Amino acid sequence: MDExxxxxxxxxxxxxxxxxxxxxxxxxxxxxxxxxxxxIQEFMRSxxxxxxxxxxxxxEEKDNNDIDHTGKVWILDPIDGTTNxxxxxxxxxxxxxLVDNGVPVMGIVYNPFTDELFSARRGEGAYLNxxxxxxxxxxxxSESLVIVGTSPYRKDLADVNFDIIKRLYIASxxxxxxxxxxLDLCYLACGRAEGFFERNLKPWDYAAGVAILREAGGCVTxxxxxxxxxxxxxxxxxxxxxxxxxxxxxxxx
Length: 253
Ligand code: IPD
Ligand code: CA
Ligand code: CA
Prior knowledge:
By secondary structure, the chain is α+β, with helices and mostly antiparallel strands. The chain has 2 domains: 2-133, Fructose-1,6-Bisphosphatase, Chain A, domain 1; 141-251, D-Maltodextrin-Binding Protein, domain 2. It has helices spanning 2-9, 12-15, 18-21, 35-51, 82-86, 158-171, 181-189, 203-215, 244-251, and strands spanning 24-28, 31-34, 56-59, 72-80, 93-100, 103-111, 116-121, 126-128, 131-132, 145-148, 174-176, 195-201, 219-221, 234-239. The chain has a 7-stranded mixed sheet with strand order 3-4-5-6-7-8-9, sandwiched between helices. Strands 11-10-12-14-13 form a 5-stranded mixed sheet, with helices on both faces. It has a two-stranded antiparallel sheet with strand order 1-2. Helix 7 runs parallel beside helix 8 (203-215). The radius of gyration is 17 Å and the shape is globular. The termini are far apart. The structure holds D-MYO-inositol-1-phosphate (IPD) and calcium ion (2 copies). One calcium ion is lined by residues 37, 60, 77, 79-80, 82.
């Protein structure tokens, strides 16, 4: 774990290179990639291959068709929160998960702008910069802060998503929108908020965060209450565990 944490921290100088952050290509509607994304992916791919030659590598800015998901797979989002990066919003993260035959067993999520590093290994607890973290004990939505995701690349889903967001806003204390799903999950893990939902996320958005939030005592499922997929996109519902059913009911109303 220590050597992986050191490795992820080494991405800081790449992530903070503002010239590369503003070297942007358009992938799709509101969907961008910068030179920072591709440089971090290449750095991590080559270092992980040297350190762990037998573990497969899945990452957002590459073709992942040949991955055998019955084995061990690194799942990397080189920058989660690229739109934030482009806007100097300082809420982006490098997210590295390890999934073994469909089970998230390790996660590291690092925000190079704040130097906050969240980490967890299955069965060994969750940590923020080395100190143990835990979800809150808020017992219902009315005393909860809910982080929402807007599925920015699926503007066609705006009506259905914002209907849910409105219902959650009315039932909770308030809502927030962070812009990095990986950090959103970690914010639940360390007790800064109680709930999170976003439709149609990709495995690299949540693989590491799932490992961290579960070790912090939280719960992550899809909208039906099932285990998310680590091969294809999933809708993600996450919580401190206690308000999970209440959120699930509102999302599926
Ligand atoms: C995005 C972020 C964002 C979420 C999007 C994701 P990216 O990841 O996690 O918070 O709303 O759905 O795609 O594109 O910045 O890696
Ligand atoms: Ca992402
Ligand atoms: Ca990304």
